[in-house]
TrEMBL record:
Domain of life (superkingdom): Bacteria
Pfam short name (any one): YdjO
Protein name, entry field: Cold-shock protein
Amino acid sequence: MYFQRKSLEDLIQENTKVWACDKEDCNGWIRDNFSFETVPTCHLCLSPMISSLKMLPIISNSNKNMKSLQKGRLIS
């Protein structure tokens, strides 16, 4: 039995500023507008990250100033 799949709506993509891991064998990256630090470190290997561009679907972030927020909270 074959069910015809409806094609998914094309997602609009744009060049997005991201932070990519500097280490060659690591694939870690994060969108700039979702990072808490001005120059983040890779969460996978703890190496420094470099700024670059990547074609990604558009995602809006309602919190415009993520870098001013605290990274985490201490659990007691």
